[in-house]
Design a protein that fits this description.
Layout (H helix, E strand, L loop, with lengths): L5 E8 L5 E3 L2 E3 L4 H10 L8 E11 L6 H16 L5 E5 L5 H11 L6 E5 L12 H14 L4 E6 L2 E4 L3 E3 L8 E3 L27 E5 L6 H8 L5 E6 L10 H12 L3 E6 L12 H8 L3 E2 L5 H13 L4 H8 L9
Parallel strand pairs: 1-4, 1-5, 5-6, 6-7, 11-12, 12-13, 13-14
Antiparallel strand pairs: 2-3, 7-8, 9-10
Organism: Pseudomonas inefficax
Pfam family, one: Asparaginase_C
Family: Belongs to the asparaginase 1 family.
Length: 329
């Protein structure tokens, strides 16, 4: 851990910098000037040196897409390798912040600087806003020293980037790191194709919850649309409608033609352990690989990073089963 001396603030949009428009709150530029003006009136403003870069276009994070993650990754890598920054603070909207934190965790494997995401539930300048508290708190984390890797700072909490999730839609303590037990071997050396220097491509993925009434035809329509990977949110420890042979056949056929199939639990706490129930074993037999105790955000982001690196499904499944950055810890 080391104090950061030359920070990049990457402003992606989000509530923290929004201004009122006739249609409601919307992302607005010029946030660097607002930050500097606010700090000028503080007696205990953070003292580290920073510069701000605006991502183009600025986003309401409800509009976040994979290509925006890749643009963030490119900006961060350039900031470190070209501009010499030794830390990056990403200002982000809260709707998809946990997804972006997880995505950057896998897209920046091996990056030798800390990356921190923060944002706010209310815009900077709004009455009783949490914006300046979160922003100043995040900056002080860099002053005190952070470990390399991706983390999320919100409401005084420092959370692991691939373990965080948004639990509350209105309270200031919106984010938590869901507890998990280690359920996988930690990967050794990360191959070059999974490191932060390796570019990625967007991946056509889908997430489907198992629910009473899920039909083979539902999955057939989705899997027939060209998806490269399916994340199935199963019951409990990884169970589903295992007596529906038509549904199992649809999954099996998709895996045989090269679609990656992964399973996570719908439960906020717990892991997929296929061996516990016969119903879980039948899903594994249809071609699903266990996501262990990963969050939805982490499992989805990990599939993007693996398949987006050009790995074949067998290789992607092997790396998916290993703990790459603490996502399965």
């Amino acid at each position: 851990m080391r104090a950061v001396k030359n920070l990049l603030v990457l402003y992606t949009g989000g509530t923290i910098g929004m201004l009122e428009t006739p249609e409601g709150l919307a992302p607005a530029g010029g946030f660097e000037a607002r930050m500097r003006e606010h700090f000028a009136h503080m007696t205990d403003a953070p003292q580290l040196r920073w510069t701000l870069q605006e991502l183009d276009p600025l986003l309401d994070s409800a509009n976040m897409q994979q290509h925006n993650w890749l643009a963030m990754r490119d900006a961060i890598v350039a900031a470190v390798e070209v501009a010499g920054h030794d830390g990056v603070l990403v200002l982000h909207g809260t709707d998809s912040m946990a997804y972006s934190a997880a995505a950057l965790s896998f897209l920046l494997l091996g990056l030798p600087v800390p990356v921190l995401l923060t944002g706010s539930m209310l815009p900077a300048g709004a009455a009783d806003s949490d914006a300046w508290g979160n922003l100043c708190g995040a900056l002080r984390q860099f002053e005190q020293g952070l470990e390399d890797g991706v983390q999320l700072f919100f409401h005084g909490q420092l959370l692991h980037g691939s373990r965080a999730t948004k639990l509350r839609s209105e309270a200031f303590d919106a984010f938590v790191a869901l507890p998990r037990h280690r359920d996988s071997e930690r990967a050794g050396a990360i191959p070059a194709e999974l490191g932060y220097k390796h570019p990625r491509q967007p991946v056509n993925l889908a997430v489907v919850p198992v629910f009473p009434g899920l039909q083979a035809s539902h999955l057939q329509a989705l899997l027939g649309s060209g998806v490269q990977g399916l994340l199935l949110e199963c019951y409990g420890s990884g169970t589903g409608p295992s007596d529906d042979q038509a549904l199992l056949d649809v999954l099996s056929a998709a895996r045989q033609r090269g679609v990656m199939l992964a399973a996570i639990s719908q439960c906020p706490e717990g892991s997929v352990v296929f061996d516990t129930y016969a119903a879980g074993n039948r899903l594994r037999g249809a071609g699903l690989v266990s996501g262990g105790g990963m969050t939805r955000e982490a499992a989805l982001a990990k599939m993007v990073a693996l398949l987006g690196a050009g790995l074949d499904v067998d290789t992607a499944e092997r790396w998916f089963a290993l703990d790459l950055c603490g996502e399965r810890a």
